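Query structure, 180 tokens:
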């Protein structure tokens, strides 16, 4: 009985609900609030399209030409070594042998072992991390000059290369390898 009553009410209300549907109009309304909104929108559009009085400074693109490293000449292996090109940031150094040295002001540097021919690898300043601490602790414990094989990522700052160590292995001398 309740179901039949609900169906009858639904059938009675349906034509009234269909008659009250609002259809979209293609004409703008003429209300007084709409003219204020249109004026504000026009004003905002004019401000947006108006050229700015503050000149915008564009960033210069990074050139693909290598930058000359002016600081490597005096710190290079050979006396009066010529300045060399810096390596691009993000370049990986893989298994390069060298020694941990320090600059006059105490910064840690990695001085590469060279083949004695080109001498074109200036020392790189080592960025502080746990691997550098491991190298320094090993040197302190051994109390002698040690060689290390390093792998890391090169960074660049103010025309100078820096090395972020990722892997450090002590290179053993021949006498240490033979167990003497």
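Result returned for the query:
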């Amino acid at each position: 009985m309740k179901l039949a009553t609900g169906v009858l009410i639904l059938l009675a209300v349906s034509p009234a609900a269909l008659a009250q549907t609002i259809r979209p109009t293609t004409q703008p309304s003429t209300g007084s609030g709409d003219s204020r909104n249109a004026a504000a929108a026009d004003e905002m559009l004019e401000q947006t399209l108006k050229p700015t009085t503050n000149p915008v400074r564009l960033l210069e693109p990074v050139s693909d030409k290598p930058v000359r490293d002016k600081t490597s000449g005096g710190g290079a292996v050979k006396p009066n070594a010529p300045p060399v090109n810096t390596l691009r940031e993000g370049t990986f150094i893989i298994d390069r042998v060298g020694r941990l040295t320090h600059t006059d002001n105490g910064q840690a540097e990695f001085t590469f072992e060279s083949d004695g021919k080109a001498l074109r690898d200036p020392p790189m300043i080592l960025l502080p991390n746990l691997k550098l601490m491991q190298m320094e602790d090993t040197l302190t414990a051994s109390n002698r000059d040690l060689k290390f094989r390093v792998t890391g990522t090169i960074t660049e700052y103010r025309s100078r290369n820096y090395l972020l160590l990722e892997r450090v292995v002590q290179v053993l001398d021949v006498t240490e390898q033979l167990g003497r």
